[in-house]
Amino acid sequence: MNYRHAFHAGNFADVLKHCVLVALLESLKQKQAPFCYIDTHAGSGRYDLHGEDALKTREHADGILRLLDAARLPSALHVYLNLVRAMNSHRPAHDLAVYPGSPCWPAC
Predict the structure, then answer these.
(1) For residue 71, what pLDDT is reported?
(2) What is the mean pLDDT of each run of 10 residues along the chain (108 residues)?
(3) CB-count exposure of residue 24 (10 Å: 0-12, 13-18, 19+)
(4) CA-to-CA distance for 73 and 44, rounded, in angstroms?
(5) Domain contains 1
(6) CA–CA separation, 85 vs 88, rounded Å?
(7) How many CB atoms lie within 10 A of CB 66?
(8) Number of folded domains in the chain?
(9) CA end-to-end span of the chain
(10) Which ranges does the record mark as transmembrane (predicted)?
(11) What pLDDT is stored for residue 106 in this prediction?
(12) Which of 6, 35, 41, 63 has its CA 20 to 30 A from that of 100?
């Protein structure tokens, strides 16, 4: 089996994983001690949601795009969504062209 994450970027599982990751990183940033984050199974840092692979499955429509419309979210999710929106600041609010992969989150 050949797995290419570009077909699945921004899907519900990606959103869950990245929300938890951002919440953990934000929590670690509150401490005075330094920390190191290593993701041994990370893919690309950026995924093109308008690319051929993502448009073939459109899994991001039931993942990140659905979350953009949600109301009354916990603060950790607002941090996550603001980071996603920042990567797409040149686009209308619900027209995400880029979805950040795991390598991007620690730098955000």
Answers:
(1) 83
(2) 82 92 90 88 88 95 90 87 89 84 73
(3) middle
(4) 27
(5) no
(6) 5
(7) 13
(8) 1
(9) 33
(10) none
(11) 65
(12) 35
Is the residue at 40 inside a domain? yes
User: Residue 103 is part of which domain span?
Assistant: 7-107
For the record, the structure tokens of 13 come out as 């599982």
Cβ 80 vs Cβ 18: under 8 Å: yes
Tell me what pLDDT residue 10 has: 94
What's the confidence (pLDDT) of residue 107? 61
d(CA 53, CA 47): 10
- Closest by CA position to 100, among listed 25, 1, 28: 25
Residue 89 resides in a domain: yes
What secondary structure does DSSP assign to 34-91, as a single string? Answer: ------TT---SEEETTSHHHHHH-GGGGTHHHHHT--S--HHHHHHHHHHHHTTTTS
51, part of any domain: yes
User: Which residues lie closer than 8 Å to 65 by C-beta, 6 or more apart?
Assistant: 10, 94, 96
